[in-house]
């Protein structure tokens, strides 16, 4: 564990608010907040962002998501807990998050087209990009995870 480097939200409030507004807009999209938070959580797991993993797992719990689905997200391919729609979004999120080692292939994109409108696909793209941005801020500035009760 290390010390929080800089309070980036107060040092660059306009940029922070803009990124927060973009995040909030996705919660209102036709994707639904549950899928957006699954994407946010999976991207944060890949990036190793403790702060964001904690936040989005708690968000999902507060919204009534099943604990087993949250715990199994890191191994979503090995379970049958996720719909084909969710699987297409998660596969795309993984590929784009780790773009240097993965290809945002035509096959993955075709799977998105089977389950989502073009607008929703764009929203998934923004969800992945925004979460990667948040992760880099939280990791780079060592945003601390505060111990909290499970239901908080």
Q: Helix and strand layout, with pairings?
A:
Elements (H helix, E strand, L loop, with lengths): L7 H4 L1 H15 L5 H15 L2 H13 L4 H6 L11 H14 L8 H10 L2 H23 L12
Helix pairs in contact: 2-8, 3-4, 3-6, 3-8, 6-7, 6-8
Shape: globular
Please tally the β strands and state the result. Answer: 0
Q: If classified by CATH, what would the architecture be?
A: Up-down Bundle
Q: Point out poorly predicted stretches.
A: none
Describe the model.
The protein has 152 residues and is mainly alpha-helical. It contains eight helices and no strands. Helix 3 runs antiparallel to helix 4.
Précis, in short:
By secondary structure, the chain is mainly alpha-helical. Helices cover 66% and strands 0% of the residues. The chain has helices spanning 8-11, 13-27, 33-47, 50-62, 67-72, 84-97, 106-115, 118-140.
Output the keywords.
152 residues; mainly alpha; AhpD-like; 8 helices
């Amino acid at each position: 564990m290390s010390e929080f480097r800089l309070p980036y939200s107060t040092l660059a409030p306009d940029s922070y608010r803009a990124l927060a507004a973009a995040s909030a807009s996705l919660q209102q999209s036709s994707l639904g907040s549950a899928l957006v938070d699954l994407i946010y959580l999976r991207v944060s797991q890949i990036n190793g962002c403790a702060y964001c993993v904690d936040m989005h797992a708690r968000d999902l719990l507060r919204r009534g998501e099943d604990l087993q689905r949250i715990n199994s997200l890191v191994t979503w391919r090995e379970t049958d807990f996720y719909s084909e729609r969710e699987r297409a979004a998660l596969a795309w999120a993984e590929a784009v998050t780790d773009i240097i080692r993965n290809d945002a292939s035509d096959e993955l994109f075709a799977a998105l087209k089977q389950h989502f409108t073009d607008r929703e696909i764009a929203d998934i793209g923004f969800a992945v990009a925004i979460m990667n941005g948040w992760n880099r801020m939280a990791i780079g500035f060592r945003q601390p995870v505060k111990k909290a009760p499970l239901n908080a």
